[in-house]
């Protein structure tokens, strides 16, 4: 083998030069504007309610593309950005293509954290045209300028999550999936004020949820904070206008001593808790919608 290379080293040199030359030419003459226009038009055709904005696109070895700042914007409300990535690296999986499959992987920097994942496209399947697996690490939720506009509640903290999803691009709510979330060191605005509380600080929130038949099944939601511990479970029936999604949830609140100290000895909240506490916890049910939730203590 070494002798063969030695005899043909000039040809290997020519090949290496051609590869470098072709790569340099592709890099400097890459049709960034044409590709950006194609991607924005394609995204608009897939979902006419959103607009895709992409910064400069450059090739990145091996077999990848690097995008500048990328934003997904609501078409009827251009001031609201559904998502923003400071940088995005996108590449196909060559081994998947050799097997006749279409698989693309990505990595991006967004909201102070990292997101990476892969998308598999099913060529001959009408029921589940694609599936995806996404991992989020250390995203700073407060850096999302429009989080309250999107979910109807203000929330802060550091988010890590794993998300699995199968569905169609035409109607994402018809898909199936599951998500495991962990949120650290933040605060969350309550669906409705509970006693004198409009928001709750937390040390950790963990949640497990499943999506099927246009319904989010909240299997587990646990919040632990300096004042209390809370749990929540139930379903959220999704609507196209997310804030109109129907709630059917039940939960508990277990206050700590610090909670009562903050309320004050003569507070009506203290009397309320003493009357309704069952084994150290207050039980409640939430109905209504995300925009207009209704809470009832049991």
What does this structure look like?
With 298 residues, the protein is an alpha+beta fold. Among the domains are: 1-30; 32-121, no CATH class. The chain is 22% helix and 50% strand. The chain has helices at residues 2-7, 9-28, 32-46, 94-98, 147-151, 257-263, 268-276, and strands at residues 50-54, 57-60, 64-67, 70-74, 81-85, 87-92, 102-110, 113-121, 130-140, 155-167, 176-194, 197-212, 215-224, 228-237, 246-255, 282-288, 293-297. The strands form two sheets. It has a 14-stranded antiparallel β-sheet. The radius of gyration is 25 Å and the shape is elongated.
Question: How many distinct beta strands?
Answer: 17
Q: If strands are numbered along the chain, what order do they take across the biggest sheet?
A: 2-3-6-7-8-9-10-11-12-13-14-15-16-17
Q: Over all CA atoms, what is the radius of gyration?
A: 25 Å
Average pLDDT level: 76
Strand residues, percent: over 45%
Which structural category do the helix and sheet elements fall into?
alpha+beta
Tally of DSSP helical segments: 7
Characterize the largest beta sheet: strand count, sense, and whether it forms a barrel. Answer: 14 strands, antiparallel
């Amino acid at each position: 083998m070494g002798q063969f290379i030695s005899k043909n080293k000039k040809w290997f040199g020519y090949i290496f030069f051609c590869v470098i030359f072709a790569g340099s030419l592709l890099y400097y003459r890459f049709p960034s504007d044409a590709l950006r226009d194609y991607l924005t038009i394609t995204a608009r055709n897939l979902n006419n309610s959103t607009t895709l904005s992409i910064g400069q696109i450059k090739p990145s070895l091996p077999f990848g593309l690097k995008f500048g700042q990328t934003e997904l914007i609501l078409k009827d409300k251009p001031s609201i950005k559904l998502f923003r990535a400071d940088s995005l690296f996108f590449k196909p999986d060559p081994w998947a293509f050799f097997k006749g499959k279409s698989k693309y992987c990505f990595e991006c920097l967004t909201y102070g954290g990292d997101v990476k994942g892969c998308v598999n496209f099913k060529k001959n399947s009408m029921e589940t045209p694609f599936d995806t697996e996404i991992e989020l690490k250390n995203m700073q939720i407060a850096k999302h300028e429009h989080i309250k506009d999107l979910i109807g509640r203000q929330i802060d903290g550091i988010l890590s999550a794993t998300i699995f999803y199968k569905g169609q691009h035409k109607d994402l709510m018809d898909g199936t999936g599951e998500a495991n979330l962990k949120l650290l060191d933040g605060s969350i605005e309550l669906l409705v004020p509970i006693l004198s509380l409009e928001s709750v600080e937390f040390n950790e929130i963990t949640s497990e949820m499943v999506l099927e038949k246009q319904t989010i099944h909240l299997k587990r939601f646990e919040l632990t904070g300096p004042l209390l511990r809370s749990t929540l479970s139930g379903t959220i029936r999704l609507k196209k206008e997310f804030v109109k999604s129907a709630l059917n949830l039940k939960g508990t609140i277990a206050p700590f001593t610090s909670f009562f100290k903050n309320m004050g000895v003569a507070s009506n909240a203290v009397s309320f808790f003493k009357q309704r506490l069952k084994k150290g916890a207050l039980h409640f049910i939430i109905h209504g919608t995300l925009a207009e939730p209704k809470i009832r203590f049991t």
